[in-house]
Amino acid sequence: TVPLDYSPVCLIRISDADGAPPAPRAFYLGFDAKIRPASKTSGRDCQYLVRLTVPDLPHQITYAAELAVSLDAQDSTETVRLNFAESVPLEQDLFSGEWRHFVVALDMDGLSCSVTIDGQPILDSVPLNQLPLASDRPEVVIGNEEGLPATAWIDNLELTYQDSLKTISGDGGTIPSPVFRDGFDRYANGLFP
Length: 193
Description:
mainly beta, six-stranded antiparallel beta sheet
């Protein structure tokens, strides 16, 4: 419902045309990232984190997928951790400062998550973390682990979901519904909000 009077604050409920709220069965967080150690001469380990949380209001819990991209400064090995699962050392040179495309997928039916980097599966079917309910909406948090600095640039950040009640099909199969997408183009010329 849209209020008749102007208001600087308005809550909007996203629902289908028939009024039914969406029932997401999968979430996809995709983004491009360019990651570097905070200082090449520091000799310190680096870690970059991305966390996606999705509330389950009927059960009063939050499901979470936490992606950590790590560099061990001692032997220069790179690993990816998704919740408590850790990859074998990678040879993708993730901390080179080159753009990489990451996708974190949450399967709400199987309560699992997976991560791909540049289209290559890294970890799959990792159980989602269950946390106390902290919010009534999905959240994305991006940042560093304290004491393990890394510098990262993010572009083309997009969160989509697949609805278990209604799906849109196209030539390539089921099309996920967008939650948000930001290419950060308006910031390129210093046009910050």
